[in-house]
């Protein structure tokens, strides 16, 4: 290259350069880790540890749209432990669920039957309608915990009446809001759904928690389903990734749809290695996570706070109006604490990076506020929270400091 070309190119290259590593990155990241240990809004906020990163750098270097060995090894492992023929590594739980629906469903009109609180129903931006042209039939479980076979039977559409969109997929979520769906009910539903030729999908973003809490092998939990989506980026603490498992045919189709949706990724070895690391090193920590969630629940009950949804795994939902306190008051005290706590509404999520100190600080804040209300004359009533039970998830936008 001549000097003249160098001279012309230098400013262009200079303009494109970027160094995004902050001079203070060590201090800033240490403070971010501290913040994460005190954040109760979700388990998706967990971050990779230095050991996870170190392991990831040893992964293979393939292009996953062609073939990436570490990613293929992860897919094969997830297929094996869930008892399915094949797996597909994808960027998110939403993509995984949507690919499952798109691959099961062939020719509209059709409907997908699910719990009204399910992620696929509420938080996937209407993806079932957008990607698959599917109507969703969302049922509110009468027991406020899980759908029953009777509710499925009462709402499923198996009809030649042209007014209706026949149900072609029933989708469950386990855990849902951190609660565990009884396996015997899943088996009853599976037997029925399959007897009428309908596909059965599980959003198992947090199925790991069920395996750990109930001591049930993953294969047994997944056996009733035709497809299962699992996530590494939530309770397991990997930075990115989910895996869809099912028959070879289903996964071949899903692989093509993944490309069509723009979800084909390239050097995914590092991500697959983070997922593998999370299975080996983070999954066992869920035992501590569940114990800490139960501690949170017990502490709230001691104060007299109403529990809306029990701490079966890593979440507990509460209503402080039973002691005259609002979510906003708690959140404000939390953010004013010398070591701030980050809180949403009714949902408290404990994760592998939650500190015991954060749980105790949270309980102290609620205890203190409850005492102040009592001193000001608030008289707790039994029915203070009765109306809130219907939708346990009261969302309150948490302010996460930059
Ligand atoms: C039960 C459940 N399924 C699916 C998802 C979607 O995962 P993602 O955020 O990776 O798209 C979530 C997200 O939190 C979830 O909680």
Automatic annotation (TrEMBL):
InterPro entries: ArAA_b-elim_lyase/Thr_aldolase (IPR001597), Low_specificity_L-TA-like (IPR023603), PyrdxlP-dep_Trfase (IPR015424), PyrdxlP-dep_Trfase_major (IPR015421), PyrdxlP-dep_Trfase_small (IPR015422)
GO CC, alphabetical: cytosol
Keywords: Lyase, Pyridoxal phosphate
Cofactor(s) demanded: pyridoxal 5'-phosphate
UniProt GO BP: glycine biosynthetic process; L-threonine catabolic process
Modified residues (N6-(pyridoxal phosphate)lysine): 234
Keyword Lyase included in the entry's annotation: yes
UniProt domain Aromatic amino acid beta-eliminating lyase/threonine aldolase: residue ranges: 40-318
Pfam families per UniProt: Beta_elim_lyase
Span of the signal peptide: none
Top-rank lineage group of the source organism: Eukaryota
An MF annotation (GO) of this entry: L-allo-threonine aldolase activity
Statement: the UniProt record of this protein carries the keyword Oxidoreductase: no
PANTHER family: L-THREONINE ALDOLASE, L-THREONINE ALDOLASE-RELATED
Sequence similarity: Belongs to the threonine aldolase family.
Protein's UniProt name: Aromatic amino acid beta-eliminating lyase/threonine aldolase domain-containing protein
Organism expressing this protein natively: Candolleomyces aberdarensis
